[in-house]
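Structure tokens please, single chain.
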Amino acid sequence: MQRQECIAMILAGGQGSRLGTLTQKVAKPAVPFGARYRIIDFTLSNCRNSGIYKVGVLTQYQHLTLNNYIGTGSAWDLERKDGGVFILPPYMRNQSAQWYAGTADAVWQNTDFIDTHQPCYVIVLSGDHIYTMDYSKMLEYHKRHKAEATIGVIRVPWEETGRFGIMNVQQDGKIYEFQEKPEYPKSNLASMGIYIFNWEVLKHHLQQDACNPDSVHDFGKNIIPAMLAGGNRLMSYPFNGYWKDVGTVESFWEANMDLIGKNLKVNLYDKKWPIYTAVKNSPPHFIADSARIKDSLVNQGSIILGQVERSVIFSGVYIGEGAIVKDSVILPDVRIEALAEVNRAVIGSQAMVERSIKVGADSQEIVMVGEAQRIVRDYTGSGTEILSHRQVV
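Here you go.
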């Protein structure tokens, strides 16, 4: 097998419980995003566009949909002689084998896969972030600074530092301290969950970590602090572009809204950096004379008879005459009947909003409607005005 200089390991097994009903049946990386994509499309496209063609995808929670979606990786041009996508769920290596116990354990359980390709470097990525980034430039930076580990960092608002792992660095970018979700941060340089390691160095630390009964086997909580304590050279790689962890309903909604408008935060139209997807075939969307669409994304197979403003509309959506949809994310195959109103909401796949019903119309919070739920009375997200999990036909 041809040796690879660098291979990618994508952590895609997260349960994503803070996304509520969006992740009841699928892992967070498989959640639909941006009218036609899934969240993991961005990380896979970054790999392809960066020239990293050997990719392992580490799955665990509700992995079937994600496995079927990725397939051989052909949609991302990763099905090639010197590359490929490999789905890597937990498997029985020995009698004590178990589910992935943490991010570091997930990579440790796949050391045989990595060793097969004999890489000099391993880039560890998350499958549930929205951003575009050229990993090849980060790898050049890693090699130029003779680092043993390089961590992508981004500046976050000081009031949000408690949500992240914070890197404290010297003037040259060398990391001297790591603070995990600190109450009193020394900087606002947050880890993006993007790591490049010298493989032999990482393998040593993974082995040591696997033997530590007190470890939670996490890169941020265990591996990075152990490398700092062991005197390894760790560098920070500053990133100035758009990056979003879509771990909550609010951040998921915000990231979708960031795709709309004249000053795009995420450019889906950059031909030099395309975002690939395994999109299914659908008929063209239909826009009726009665429709009005403003500042919105509308995917194939949708039928729009009503009004849509500042919204993201996925495939197969029906919006009836006189209906109003504003500042909302409408996932595939949703039906919004005539004269209904939807405002600041995320509507799950196959849900139905009946005629003249208001969803979130008077709410400042983001209202979440789950998959295949039927809204039968006005709904602000705080009551029980729905018939839960009733299939819409």
